[in-house]
Amino acid sequence: MASEIHKARPDLNAACHAHSVYGKAFSCFGRPLEMIYQDALRFYNDLAVYPRYGGTVISTEEGARIAKTLGNCRSIILQNHGMITCGATVDEAAFLFIALDRCCHAQMLANAASGPGWEKILIGKEEAEFTHKKSGNSGKMWLAFQPYFDQVAKTEPDVFE
Predict the structure, then answer these.
(1) Contact status, residue 74 vs residue 48, Cβ threshold 8 Å
(2) Superfamily of domain 2-160 in the CATH hierarchy
(3) Is 88 exposed, middle or buried (0-12, 13-18, 19+ CB in 10 A)?
């Protein structure tokens, strides 16, 4: 998958892929996040959904289809599988992965709580575009990852040896 994404998107130098608990649980719905809270706006018009599960991805053809579906986005939910986030730096891709996993969790909590009298209210297009522009750029993603990096460096310094 990663090699096909790199071929299609030379601007992306890093990709994170895993089957996180919340990512794979949310992926079974085969749909994007709803723009219902500020953190989700990092993914406004920047999150694709790959709508088919073709089994374990071992072919370049499947990787190419995933890369094509990713398009100009940095993140993609793979239906019934998990998710991939990409960035110009490892830090950006890693922070987007952490953020997307948390957003999947929050989305499922909101979905579980909704019902009569508890309808979700979507954030408007103008507000979503403004917030994404201010908080969703590569530099902000890199910066947002630094506390995670510092924590690992402090608590597990041997990982850098």
Answers:
(1) no
(2) Class II aldolase/adducin N-terminal domain (3.40.225.10)
(3) middle
Kind plus residue range of the DSSP H or E element containing 98: helix 90-113
CA 157, CA 151: separation in Å to the nearest integer? 9
- Tell me how far apart the alpha carbons of residues 33 and 11 are, in angstroms, rounded to a whole number: 24
**18 by DSSP, 3-state: which?**
strand
Check: CB of residue 14 under 8 Å from CB of residue 87.
Answer: yes
Nearest to 38 by CA among 134, 115, 144: 134
Q: Which of 74, 91, 59, 92 is nearest to 83 (CA)?
A: 74
Q: CA–CA separation, 151 vs 59, rounded Å?
A: 37
pLDDT at 55: 67
Counting runs of H as helices and runs of E as strands, what totals does the chain give? 6, 4
43-74 pLDDT, tens digit per residue, is 999 999 999 877 676 678 888 999 999 999 99
Phi, psi of 81 (to 5 degrees): -140, -65
Quote the pTM value.
0.87
